Amino acid sequence: MHTRILGTELQVSAVGLGCMGLSHAYGTALDKKEAITRIREAVDMGYTFFDTAEVYVGQYADGTPAINEELVGEALKPIRDKVVVATKGGITLGSQHHTVSDASPASLRRSLEQSLRRLQTDTIDLYYQHRLDAAREPEEVAYTMQTFIKEGKIRHWGISNASPGYIRRAHAVCPITAIQERYSLMYRQTAQLFPLLEELHIGFVAYSPLANGFLSGLYKGTEQFDKELDFRSWMPQYTEEGAQKAKELTHLLAGLSVEKDATPAQISLAWMLCKKPYIVPIPGTTKAKRLCENAEAADITLSEEDVKKIDQVLDHSEFSVFAPQTES
Q: Among 82, 124, 235, 301, which lies 20 to 30 A Cα-Cα from 310?
């Protein structure tokens, strides 16, 4: 697979693997052995960038906890020096799966030490502040991350779900390698960050690049999703209204797919990869076929005219189905 650079030096595969869905947010967790197999298949396909987080904890079919960092750590341990592992700290799970932001130095250190143990590694390649904490200034968080870098416990740091002002202030204390934000054909609001990222030489890691699977064209309606364990059961793009708003886009993607001998998901990822050289999408999947499909998106070239066609549809459509991210 082609590679890209996050920040000034962190080289990763052009498409990374978001590991969250293997155990969290998309229904009952995949069997641990199968999930480890999937990650190792990804390595064989050329993926070198794997994303997880402390709070990605789901439930196996037998009711036991499915801890994402543990399976990522076990899967990658034999080839740890050949891959880039990213994880996140600074939020904890509260009651009823609600999360609580805590980016205090003590909390971040506790989270980091636990992540190192679960991932079976001495150093984390890219460590994110998972969400902003209103009680902590960006300079304090950046100084904490700088300390971790000096100790050799992390190589690079980043922020997920951040505001421009926060990014600028934090970067002035300790250079940020990447931010992680929602970005897809159906959520383009975060593109406003691009000029700042170019000014500061910061990479952009795109989560939910397929709008939680909607852009693959494989899922219709919410009825098929577990109401308790699958976040897609309440996502607006899967409602009849959301699908109707996206009808023109999905029709265009279907046409381009035939023209390019690709899938709608591949066209969606290729569009993103064409936008900026520092964007790295991290789609997730539990299926080997989809792993291969997503990886091959990096080989698809869209012309300027193709991208223009897509952008014109986006510019006059009504399907901003995701609410603005209040934590930013």
A: 235
